[in-house]
Amino acid sequence: MTYLTAHAGSDGTKDNTLPSVQYGLDSGADCVEVDVRQKDDGTLVLSHDESNRDSVPLADAFACLKKYPQAKMNCDLKAEGLEEAVYQLAVSCGVSDQLIYSGTVDPVDFHQRHAKFAKAEVYMNIENLWPTIYENMLKGVIPLRMLDVLKDAAAQGIHVINLEYRVYDVLVNDLKECGLKASVWTVNEMGEIKRFLQDPQIINITTRKIRDAVACREELC
């Protein structure tokens, strides 16, 4: 079954707030997404851009998550080097087996590094592998070495590539050849959601229209 992830701010809730997290958890989603940064004092908070004093502590979001043991939380890391700190906090909150990472995850020596946050699944953002990928592909230019890059990622132990849904069709054959699944973001059109729900290559759909997406999946089942 394809995962459905409630994007931060789904269905009109405010991004990166506890009501948004709670809404996602109550919606029937398999996962809720939050953006994660670290304040100067080391506190991990929900924030897309620079954090401020009103940013919600990640620990509070984990406390909500713990009440839903069947659900997961996709921590979209907005700065480098947060993987281990987020994982240690998740361990202390009792939710380490409910973690998914996306965002700024370093692919270098991934196989060795992943042992330090072993229970966290990783949806590796494609721009971590090729920083100019969107700039090129939205111009219709496919990097010549993209297949080699994806093969290297698979060899490192990466299983899922996280990418903007509009470029998925361009890379689907390369992903298949490398044995990689795809997580697509942010899909808000119901026609596209239905199409991706029926594509076995897609492991996750992140959407702001989470209740409609859940209903669509139920109809297809």
Automatic annotation (TrEMBL):
Record InterPro entries: GP_PDE_dom, PLC-like_Pdiesterase_TIM-brl
Gene Ontology terms for molecular function: phosphoric diester hydrolase activity
Transmembrane feature ranges: none
Ranges for domain GP-PDE: 14-59
One GO-annotated biological process of the protein: lipid metabolic process
Gene3D superfamilies in alphabetical order: Phosphatidylinositol (PI) phosphodiesterase
Pfam families: GDPD (PF03009)
Taxonomy of the source species: Bacteria, Bacillati, Bacillota, Erysipelotrichia, Erysipelotrichales
Protein name: Glycerophosphodiester phosphodiesterase
